[in-house]
Write a structure and sequence with these properties.
The chain is built from 8 helices and 5 strands, in the order βαβαααβαβααβα. It has about 200 residues and is an alpha/beta fold. It has one domain: Rossmann fold (3-Layer(aba) Sandwich), CATH 3.40.50. It binds adenosine-5'-diphosphate.
Protein backbone atom coordinates (compact mmCIF):
# COMPACT_ATOMS: atom_id res chain seq x y z
CA UNK A 1 0.00 0.00 0.00
CA UNK A 2 1.80 3.03 -1.26
CA UNK A 3 0.46 6.57 -1.14
CA UNK A 4 2.43 9.16 -3.03
CA UNK A 5 2.18 12.73 -4.23
CA UNK A 6 3.94 14.10 -7.28
CA UNK A 7 4.60 17.85 -7.14
CA UNK A 8 6.35 20.03 -9.68
CA UNK A 9 5.82 23.02 -11.95
CA UNK A 10 3.72 22.78 -15.11
CA UNK A 11 5.90 21.20 -17.77
CA UNK A 12 8.12 19.26 -15.36
CA UNK A 13 6.79 16.00 -16.77
CA UNK A 14 4.47 14.96 -13.95
CA UNK A 15 1.89 13.34 -16.21
CA UNK A 16 4.45 11.22 -18.05
CA UNK A 17 6.16 10.08 -14.89
CA UNK A 18 2.87 9.47 -13.07
CA UNK A 19 1.77 7.00 -15.76
CA UNK A 20 5.08 5.16 -15.61
CA UNK A 21 5.20 5.03 -11.82
CA UNK A 22 1.63 3.83 -11.69
CA UNK A 23 2.63 0.83 -13.75
CA UNK A 24 5.86 0.16 -11.90
CA UNK A 25 4.30 0.46 -8.45
CA UNK A 26 0.94 -1.10 -9.25
CA UNK A 27 -1.11 1.84 -7.97
CA UNK A 28 -3.53 4.13 -9.84
CA UNK A 29 -2.23 7.52 -10.98
CA UNK A 30 -4.87 10.14 -10.29
CA UNK A 31 -4.50 13.48 -12.07
CA UNK A 32 -6.94 16.26 -11.27
CA UNK A 33 -6.08 17.95 -14.59
CA UNK A 34 -6.90 14.72 -16.49
CA UNK A 35 -10.18 14.30 -14.63
CA UNK A 36 -11.18 17.88 -15.48
CA UNK A 37 -10.27 17.34 -19.15
CA UNK A 38 -12.20 14.03 -19.29
CA UNK A 39 -15.22 15.82 -17.88
CA UNK A 40 -14.88 18.52 -20.47
CA UNK A 41 -14.78 15.96 -23.28
CA UNK A 42 -17.85 14.27 -21.82
CA UNK A 43 -19.58 17.66 -21.65
CA UNK A 44 -20.40 17.50 -17.94
CA UNK A 45 -21.19 20.54 -15.82
CA UNK A 46 -17.96 20.00 -13.90
CA UNK A 47 -16.04 19.98 -17.18
CA UNK A 48 -17.52 23.29 -18.29
CA UNK A 49 -16.89 24.88 -14.93
CA UNK A 50 -13.28 23.64 -14.86
CA UNK A 51 -12.66 24.87 -18.39
CA UNK A 52 -13.45 28.46 -17.47
CA UNK A 53 -10.59 28.37 -14.95
CA UNK A 54 -8.16 26.15 -16.86
CA UNK A 55 -8.27 28.30 -19.99
CA UNK A 56 -7.11 31.29 -17.95
CA UNK A 57 -4.47 29.27 -16.12
CA UNK A 58 -6.32 29.73 -12.82
CA UNK A 59 -6.85 27.02 -10.27
CA UNK A 60 -10.27 25.44 -10.15
CA UNK A 61 -11.86 26.47 -6.78
CA UNK A 62 -10.81 24.32 -3.82
CA UNK A 63 -14.33 23.24 -2.92
CA UNK A 64 -14.82 21.76 -6.40
CA UNK A 65 -11.42 20.10 -6.54
CA UNK A 66 -11.60 18.76 -2.99
CA UNK A 67 -15.00 17.14 -3.55
CA UNK A 68 -13.76 15.59 -6.75
CA UNK A 69 -10.70 14.07 -5.08
CA UNK A 70 -12.61 12.83 -2.03
CA UNK A 71 -14.93 11.05 -4.42
CA UNK A 72 -12.12 9.59 -6.53
CA UNK A 73 -10.12 8.39 -3.52
CA UNK A 74 -13.06 6.43 -2.17
CA UNK A 75 -13.22 4.34 -5.38
CA UNK A 76 -12.20 0.72 -4.84
CA UNK A 77 -8.97 0.87 -6.86
CA UNK A 78 -7.55 3.61 -4.62
CA UNK A 79 -7.91 1.41 -1.53
CA UNK A 80 -4.57 -0.24 -2.09
CA UNK A 81 -2.71 3.01 -2.68
CA UNK A 82 -2.45 5.85 -5.15
CA UNK A 83 -0.23 8.40 -6.78
CA UNK A 84 -1.71 11.89 -6.89
CA UNK A 85 -0.51 14.04 -9.79
CA UNK A 86 -1.38 17.72 -9.51
CA UNK A 87 -3.13 17.55 -6.15
CA UNK A 88 -2.84 19.17 -3.64
CA UNK A 89 -1.94 22.61 -5.06
CA UNK A 90 -3.15 24.87 -2.24
CA UNK A 91 -2.93 24.96 1.56
CA UNK A 92 -6.65 24.28 1.73
CA UNK A 93 -6.23 21.18 -0.45
CA UNK A 94 -3.44 19.94 1.85
CA UNK A 95 -5.78 20.34 4.81
CA UNK A 96 -8.55 18.41 3.05
CA UNK A 97 -6.22 15.59 2.03
CA UNK A 98 -4.82 15.37 5.59
CA UNK A 99 -8.34 15.05 6.95
CA UNK A 100 -9.34 12.49 4.36
CA UNK A 101 -6.30 10.33 5.11
CA UNK A 102 -6.73 10.63 8.88
CA UNK A 103 -10.41 9.69 8.61
CA UNK A 104 -9.42 6.53 6.76
CA UNK A 105 -6.47 5.71 9.04
CA UNK A 106 -3.99 6.25 6.23
CA UNK A 107 -0.91 8.39 5.69
CA UNK A 108 1.41 9.43 2.89
CA UNK A 109 4.60 7.49 2.22
CA UNK A 110 6.45 10.10 0.18
CA UNK A 111 6.11 13.30 -1.81
CA UNK A 112 8.12 13.31 -5.01
CA UNK A 113 9.25 16.79 -6.00
CA UNK A 114 10.06 16.90 -9.70
CA UNK A 115 12.28 19.87 -10.53
CA UNK A 116 12.90 21.60 -13.87
CA UNK A 117 14.07 25.12 -14.62
CA UNK A 118 11.67 27.62 -16.09
CA UNK A 119 13.21 27.92 -19.57
CA UNK A 120 12.97 24.16 -19.99
CA UNK A 121 9.38 23.91 -18.75
CA UNK A 122 8.18 26.79 -20.93
CA UNK A 123 9.77 25.29 -24.02
CA UNK A 124 8.30 21.86 -23.26
CA UNK A 125 4.84 23.39 -22.81
CA UNK A 126 5.09 25.40 -26.03
CA UNK A 127 6.08 22.24 -27.87
CA UNK A 128 3.10 20.43 -26.35
CA UNK A 129 0.90 23.32 -27.47
CA UNK A 130 2.04 22.73 -31.06
CA UNK A 131 1.68 18.92 -30.80
CA UNK A 132 -1.56 18.61 -28.83
CA UNK A 133 -3.25 21.98 -29.02
CA UNK A 134 -4.16 22.20 -25.34
CA UNK A 135 -6.05 25.46 -24.89
CA UNK A 136 -4.12 26.38 -21.72
CA UNK A 137 -0.71 26.04 -23.37
CA UNK A 138 -0.42 29.55 -24.87
CA UNK A 139 2.58 31.54 -23.71
CA UNK A 140 0.64 34.06 -21.58
CA UNK A 141 -1.38 31.34 -19.86
CA UNK A 142 1.74 29.22 -19.32
CA UNK A 143 3.47 32.18 -17.59
CA UNK A 144 0.45 32.61 -15.36
CA UNK A 145 0.35 28.90 -14.46
CA UNK A 146 4.03 29.05 -13.52
CA UNK A 147 3.41 32.14 -11.35
CA UNK A 148 0.52 30.49 -9.57
CA UNK A 149 2.64 27.40 -9.01
CA UNK A 150 5.42 29.50 -7.45
CA UNK A 151 2.97 31.43 -5.25
CA UNK A 152 0.58 28.74 -4.11
CA UNK A 153 1.98 25.28 -4.72
CA UNK A 154 5.76 25.45 -4.29
CA UNK A 155 5.38 26.52 -0.61
CA UNK A 156 3.56 23.24 0.05
CA UNK A 157 6.83 21.39 -0.50
CA UNK A 158 8.16 22.93 2.75
CA UNK A 159 5.09 21.70 4.59
CA UNK A 160 5.76 18.14 3.47
CA UNK A 161 9.54 18.53 3.93
CA UNK A 162 8.90 19.38 7.60
CA UNK A 163 7.15 16.03 7.82
CA UNK A 164 10.21 14.32 6.32
CA UNK A 165 8.31 13.17 3.25
CA UNK A 166 9.96 14.96 0.34
CA UNK A 167 12.25 13.27 -2.15
CA UNK A 168 13.64 15.64 -4.75
CA UNK A 169 14.28 14.40 -8.26
CA UNK A 170 15.81 16.27 -11.20
CA UNK A 171 13.25 16.25 -14.02
CA UNK A 172 15.78 17.09 -16.72
CA UNK A 173 17.02 14.32 -19.01
CA UNK A 174 15.33 11.51 -20.88
CA UNK A 175 11.95 10.23 -19.67
CA UNK A 176 13.55 6.86 -18.87
CA UNK A 177 16.35 8.43 -16.86
CA UNK A 178 13.90 10.43 -14.80
CA UNK A 179 11.74 7.35 -14.12
CA UNK A 180 14.80 5.38 -12.99
CA UNK A 181 15.83 8.24 -10.69
CA UNK A 182 12.42 8.32 -9.05
CA UNK A 183 12.24 4.54 -8.68
CA UNK A 184 15.71 4.58 -7.10
CA UNK A 185 14.96 7.26 -4.48
CA UNK A 186 11.66 5.62 -3.61
CA UNK A 187 13.32 2.28 -3.22
CA UNK A 188 15.86 3.85 -0.82
CA UNK A 189 12.84 4.73 1.30
CA UNK A 190 11.57 1.17 1.17
CA UNK A 191 8.95 1.86 -1.50
CA UNK A 192 9.35 -0.97 -3.98
CA UNK A 193 8.04 -1.89 -7.39
CA UNK A 194 5.08 -4.20 -7.75
CA UNK A 195 6.16 -7.85 -8.19
P1 LIG B 1 -0.18 21.47 -15.33
O1 LIG B 1 0.50 20.71 -14.25
O2 LIG B 1 0.69 21.64 -16.52
O3 LIG B 1 -0.78 22.76 -14.84
P2 LIG B 1 -2.58 19.81 -15.25
O4 LIG B 1 -3.17 19.00 -16.33
O5 LIG B 1 -2.11 19.10 -14.04
O6 LIG B 1 -1.38 20.61 -15.93
O7 LIG B 1 -3.62 20.94 -14.79
C1 LIG B 1 -4.27 21.75 -15.74
C2 LIG B 1 -5.22 22.73 -15.05
O8 LIG B 1 -6.20 22.02 -14.28
C3 LIG B 1 -4.59 23.69 -14.03
O9 LIG B 1 -4.00 24.81 -14.64
C4 LIG B 1 -5.83 24.05 -13.19
O10 LIG B 1 -6.64 24.97 -13.85
C5 LIG B 1 -6.58 22.74 -13.12
N1 LIG B 1 -6.17 21.95 -11.94
C6 LIG B 1 -5.53 20.76 -11.95
N2 LIG B 1 -5.31 20.33 -10.69
C7 LIG B 1 -5.82 21.27 -9.86
C8 LIG B 1 -5.90 21.42 -8.45
N3 LIG B 1 -5.38 20.50 -7.60
N4 LIG B 1 -6.50 22.52 -7.95
C9 LIG B 1 -7.02 23.44 -8.76
N5 LIG B 1 -6.98 23.38 -10.10
C10 LIG B 1 -6.38 22.31 -10.66
Amino acid sequence: MTRLLLIGPPGAGKGTQAARLSERLGIPAISTGDIFRENLRAGTELGLLAKSFMDRGEYVPDTVTNDLIADRLTAADADSGFLLDGYPRTTEQVRTLDEFLADHGHSLDAVVQLTADEDETVSRLLKRARDQGRSDDTEAVIRHRLELYAQQTEPLIDVYADRGLVVRVDGLGSMDDVTERIVAVLSERGIRQAA
